[in-house]
Amino acid sequence: MYVQKIPWEANYDESQMPVYTLPDPLRCQDGSTVKTADEWMKKRRGELLRMFKDVMYGELPPLPDRVRYELLSEKRDARGGKAIRREVRIHLEMNNGRSHHIDMLYYLPAKASGKVPVFVGLTFIGNHVITDEPDARITGTAGDQEGNPINRERGFQVRRFPIDTILERGYALAVASYHDVFPDRLTGWETSIYQLFFQGEELKRPKGYSCIGAWAWGISRMLDYLETVPEIDGAKAAVFGHSRLGKTSLWAGVTDERFKLVCVNDSGCGGAALSRRLYGETLFSMCNFHSIGKYWFTETLEAKAAHPEDLPLDQHELIALVAPRAVAVHSAIEDQWADPKGEYLSAYYAGPVFRLFGKTPLESENPPEIEHPVGTDVSYYCRNGKHDLLLSDWQHYMDMADRIFGK
After folding, report:
1. Looking at the structure, do residues 42 and 74 belong to the same domain, yes or no?
2. HSE of 18 in the Cβ direction (CA atoms, 13 Å)?
3. How many whole angstroms separate alpha carbon 272 and alpha carbon 267?
4. pLDDT in tens, 251-290
5. Which of 24, 28, 106, 349 could cysteine-pair with 316, CB 3.0–4.6 Å?
6. CA distances (Å), 391 to each of 47, 136, 239, 342, 394, in order?
7. Are residues 341 and 205 in the same domain?
8. Residues 83 and 220 in one domain
């Protein structure tokens, strides 16, 4: 048995990987095998979803007692007249007086003739890092593990959000800071959306819940609002995310079937990559190195992380839970920590489930050449470069969206 000795001893040698057997996504807990799409939806999908909640991502929080929306700003000639820009506060309120809010920034193509599809996702740090517009509000509660502020200037991550290109191709873009939902630190529980539902000692680590679960829940609350926007076609929504937010976008896409396209960028272990490969980032390293797994995932995963071969699931089954909707898995060849090959194989081995619905899975067990996207309903793209979200990623996501949404 291969056992990783310490978290930072990452394996990058294919010859040193353990021999592993993946669980069959079509095999039910009672030993029967799913043969039709109807059987999948009525029986196996629910089983697998329950396993991922129990083992990795936890329960989704409930809905608050009330939700109301406050328009903070509107600029109808933003970005040189290319966009309508709005900033909206999503108020989440409980009958006991507790409340929380998420600040969302979204852009609409100014010259659109009808309702437009929308890409929805969370940002690192705050909304202001995706644009250098001086009148966009600074948001987020960024901080280190001790809660000390980490200041990032306006436009710090504009390279990850080619807003004008997205608008020119006829899409809306909606973002919110992940810190608004759950501040990304060990003590984030107490100032997260969980303070709506828990208090006291229970709030310090609610059993059976996770940070990623909260982030995914927040994305769904964003879509709730976007469905009310007259200029947006809420039936044509895509969820996206990069890195830990790629793990989040995959879970959001699984748990919220309103998303017709799920875009998963450089998500690594706990996202698209197979856990059993023990290549690069591992469940064990996440649950020990900087202790991020102690809040990103459930306490159950923390206890089992050293032996992913004993888990009743692997990430190809998570991708399979997106079926029959479309999924795009992206990697970067220099991002070996995220295991590009493991991300591809996970998408490939989800194929039998997509095939039940008459969808087209990935054809080959061998990953494609770099900069050569493959697949239709299940798609994969590995670009040159490092761990990042770049224009070429967006171009492929939008190419998929054009096809899926009939643009």
Report:
1. no
2. 16
3. 6
4. 999 999 999 999 999 999 999 999 999 999 999 998 887 6
5. 349
6. 37, 22, 16, 23, 5
7. no
8. yes
Cα 342 to Cα 98, 103, 301, 353, 378: the distances in Å are 43, 35, 20, 18, 15
In a domain, 243, yes or no: no
Residue 359 domain-assigned? yes
Facing residues of 177 across strands?
123
Q: Which residue type sits at 206?
A: P
Hey, what's the torsion of the CAs at 75, 77, 82, 83, to 10 degrees? 20
Handedness of CA 130, 270, 324, 381 (dihedral sign): positive
DSSP 205-244: S-TT--HHHHHHHHHHHHHHHHTT-TTEEEEEEEEEEETH
Q: In what order do the strands lie in the sheet with 232-242?
A: 66-77, 83-93, 99-109, 172-177, 116-123, 232-242, 259-265, 326-332, 378-383
Bridge partners (DSSP) listed for residue 33: 27
Separation CA 209–CA 393 (nearest Å): 31
Indicate the residue among 198, 220, 237 that finishes a domain.
237
Q: Which residues are designated catalytic?
A: 243, 387
Under a CB-based contact definition with an 8 Å cutoff, are residues 218 and 122 in contact? yes
Where the chain has pLDDT below 70, the residues are 1-8, 141-152, 290-291
Same domain, 229 and 86: yes
286 and 303 part of one domain? yes
The string of DSSP letters for 267-321 reads: --BTTTB-GGG--SS-HHHHTTGGGTHHHHS-HHHHHHTT-GGGSS--HHHHHHT
Which of the listed residues 237, 258, 281 is the one where a domain comes to its end?
Answer: 237
Residue 190 lies in domain: 66-144+153-237
Q: Are residues 52 and 70 in the same domain?
A: no
Q: Which of 404, 106, 49, 108 lies closest to 261, judged by CA?
A: 404
- Asked whether the CA dihedral 203, 204, 210, 212 is positive or negative, the reply is positive
Task: Answer whether residue 187 is part of any domain.
Answer: yes
| pLDDT score of 217 | 99
In the structure encoding, which two tokens stand for residue 273, read together?
């990559």
The predicted pLDDT at position 3 comes to 40
- Please state the separation of Cα 100 from the chain's center in Å: 22
Domains of the chain: total: 2
Is 381 within the bounds of a domain? yes
Specify the amino acid at residue 142: A
- Cis ω before 134 (30° cut-off from 0): no
